[in-house]
């Protein structure tokens, strides 16, 4: 005769008890295993930082084109290279309006440091710029490294370098679009042959920042971009056009 469980009985028949216990055990194991696999499959947060609330002073020479950059003063040690910082304003805005008329000027600024292995940036505090006695401006010729086709993702450099984490991918697309519209420098994040991640600031054929219309449909998406690579002061640039940007599946 088949076993039958009656609710008001103190316990279920032995066969039913065994099957229920086995089912519960399997359900627990599947739940724990599924959670573990999900956790393992997730990428960790990038090792980046936005030193919010901590203001620092920086002195160096400004370059405003193609993007606002500060090359800090030499330390006096010939073995120590200059440090190069991209610049931005508070919020989702580029720093151009804060630095008008300061091309090649020796200055001191106050700002908040944003940094990641791929680069560093300063969020300039409005009104903090002061001019210093002129020094010899650092030489920054663009070195032409040749034509390449790179795959990666178009990002806004402010969030990617540390203000947001993650500052990339589909979840960050809307934020990136607004930052880029406000003048934050756009860059392609791509990997070298050894897997090292690198930022390539996007330029047009004229050497000016690539027009937003050329890449706005490719923000936070996998892309392949063909163009000419240049290097200067530790920063890499990719000169391209809309016709040479391909959205990937």
Structure notes:
This protein is of the alpha+beta class and about 250 residues long. The protein has 2 domains: about 50-130, OB fold (Dihydrolipoamide Acetyltransferase, E2P) (Beta Barrel), CATH 2.40.50; about 145-245, OB fold (Dihydrolipoamide Acetyltransferase, E2P), CATH 2.40.50. The chain contains 4 helices and 14 strands. The protein has helices at about 15-40, 155-165, 175-180, 210-215, and strands spanning about 50, 55-65, 70, 85-90, 95, 105-115, 120-125, 130, 145-155, 185-190, 195-205, 220-230, 235-240, 245. The protein has a 5-stranded mixed beta barrel. The protein has a 5-stranded mixed β-barrel with strand order 9-10-11-13-12. The longest helix is centred in the first third of the chain and has 28 residues, at about 15-40.
List the helices and strands and how they pair.
Elements: H1 14-41, E1 49-50, E2 56-63, E3 69-72, E4 84-89, E5 93-94, E6 106-116, E7 119-124, E8 130-131, E9 143-156, H2 157-163, H3 173-181, E10 186-191, E11 197-203, H4 212-215, E12 222-232, E13 235-239, E14 245-247
Parallel strand pairs: 4-7, 11-13
Antiparallel strand pairs: 1-6, 2-3, 2-6, 3-4, 4-5, 6-7, 6-8, 9-10, 9-12, 10-11, 12-13, 12-14
Count of β-strands? 14
Radius of gyration: 26 Å
Please, how many domains?
Answer: 2
Annotated CATH architecture of the largest domain: Beta Barrel
Order of helices and strands: HEEEEEEEEEHHEEHEEE
Keywords:
5-stranded mixed barrel, 249 residues, 2 domains, OB fold (Dihydrolipoamide Acetyltransferase, E2P), 4 helices, alpha+beta, 5-stranded mixed β-barrel
